[in-house]
Please model this.
Amino acid sequence: MKKSKNVKFAALMLLVCAVLFCMKPVGVQASTMQTINTKRPCKSYDITGDNKKDSIQTKWAFDEYVSVIVNGKTIYKDKTPIEYDPTVRYCRFENGTPFLFIESYGVNELAQATIVYYKNSKPKSINLDFGDYGWLYGVSDLSVSGNTFTVQYSLMTGSTGFTRLKPCVFVYKDGDIKRKGHNVYDVAALDRYTTGHEMLRTSYVSTARKLTAYNDITTKDRAFSIKKGAKIKITKIYYNRKTLLVGVEYNGKFGWVKGIKRIVAYKKPLFKNLAFGG
Model:
């Protein structure tokens, strides 16, 4: 009898330990990301953060903008007309904060991607576009873990052509979602044409003209000059929605080169043999 009681007690203690181990602290939830259908009002999720289910819907027509409608109000509208159904992902950080990630594609597969969330009951958005300096060309490898959101995206800029960035990490802090690194992006690789008109993925390119590199993003102090035809490595991009700079390595030195808007890329490129950029 005593042995039986000991066995039952041991089993009970194991169960209690298992429950305690699996329990999350108060206020902590599992982070999540899932694609949702918003062609009609979707009423299964809370996006405003008040723990009540909201009506979430997207509206669009061919060659028109995507609109996001929450509880009957338009809270966001894309800047570029699209041609395909937008993909809407409902995401939630571990702390319970929800947000939407909206991905859409238009002419020539150029993309729009936006994070939409609420702060103090008001909608906010983060657009991944590069304005007058380039287009977003696609997103991949999306994930939500803890209180971070990771996405890798590719660009088509007038300065660097087809550019693949290293994964960008967005972090929730003090009611806001902000990207680590702020306005500086790390470059993974560029696509460059070879003499046989094949595409080569590389970080090294040749300059199309003489360039000036600056010490920092203020571009007040010159660091060094780069002669025409010199081989350089592109490692970073700085973009603050007003200015784009290209971070380059040349002869063991690093500097920032002023970028160009996409509209002048064909006339006066910075580098040679880049898809779209020169």
The chain is about 10% helix and 50% strand. Residues 131-278 form one domain. Residues 7-27 have pLDDT under 50 and may be disordered. The first strand starts at residue 32 and ends at 36.
